[in-house]
Write a structure and sequence with these properties.
By secondary structure, this protein is an all-alpha fold. It has helices at residues 3-41, 54-101, 109-131, 145-175, 180-201, 213-261. α3 (109-131) packs antiparallel against α6 and α4 (145-175) runs antiparallel to α5 (180-201).
Length: 262
């Protein structure tokens, strides 16, 4: 039960999670991206305008095949590369965090791994999404993308930092003899307070303009579903692998103890 064994299994879980996320994103997400691009190209959104001159129409027809090939690549190999890369990173980080949490939460290795994966989803994906949800193409002023990115990553760091701090607090409370209920409720309340105050203090971004509400909702729903599928796969696969590793190590240890007692 060492970090390297956790990491190997985390990378495997992350690889599978990336493949699952690709499937979800391709089925439920890509149609919404195509719809958003169509709206953008039609000039039907806020500050975006469709080209009105006839010469632009001719140029667009010449570039149509190139654009289609590029879009096809983005929605297949490009999307797959992105989801697998993110899955590997999240799987590796989650496995190392699970190795660090081992023995500190008074749970079995499988249980603590599942808790770590759940915390990861909430802190890394769900809470930042609630404050700064994903936007499809055609939504948002291009000139403010840097500012919006800074706000998102700033809030993401606050959420992750609060999750780490409250998880450490839970371990400290357990060592000091607090009940499992107290060691759970107090850190959860602390995380909620920290992230809620941060969300209240940070500015709200509202650059939706005249973008259709249903398309925006479907895109954001697909985004969080993809993230949830990725994290669920990491949690389920990694928990199962760590559980099997622990069972194998326990059986080996029992065998050695039995052999030593004979």
């Amino acid at each position: 039960m060492n970090p390297s064994n956790f990491l190997i299994r985390g990378l495997l879980a992350g690889l599978l999670a990336g493949l699952v996320a690709f499937g979800v994103a391709y089925v439920v997400g890509e149609p919404q991206v195509d719809a958003a691009i169509a709206i953008e190209e039609s000039g039907g959104v806020g500050h975006h305008h469709a080209p009105a001159a006839a010469e632009h129409e001719h140029a667009a027809s010449e570039d149509e095949l190139t654009t289609e090939v590029s879009r096809r690549t983005q929605s297949t190999w490009g999307l797959l590369t992105g989801t697998v890369g993110i899955g590997l990173a999240l799987g590796g980080i989650t496995s190392l965090a699970a190795a660090f949490a081992l023995g500190r939460l008074r749970m079995s290795p499988a249980q603590s791994t599942a808790v770590v994966a759940g915390i990861g989803f909430v802190a890394f994906s769900l809470v930042p999404f609630l404050k700064y949800p994903a936007n499809p193409p055609a939504v948002g002023d291009p000139d403010s993308i840097g500012h919006r990115s800074d706000l998102f990553f700033g809030f993401l760091l606050i959420s992750i930092g609060a999750a780490i701090a409250e998880t450490v607090l839970a371990g400290i409370l357990l060592k000091r003899g607090k009940s499992a209920f107290q060691a759970t409720v107090i850190p959860v309340l602390g995380f909620v307070v920290i992230t809620s105050v941060a969300a209240w203090l940070l500015p709200t971004v509202n650059e939706v303009g005249t973008f259709p509400a249903d398309t925006l909702w479907f895109f954001r729903r697909a985004s969080i579903l993809t993230s949830a599928a990725e994290w669920a796969t990491i949690g389920i696969v990694l928990t199962g692998l760590i559980g099997r590793l622990y069972a194998r190590e326990s059986a080996e240890q029992a065998r050695r103890e039995l052999a030593a007692s004979l």
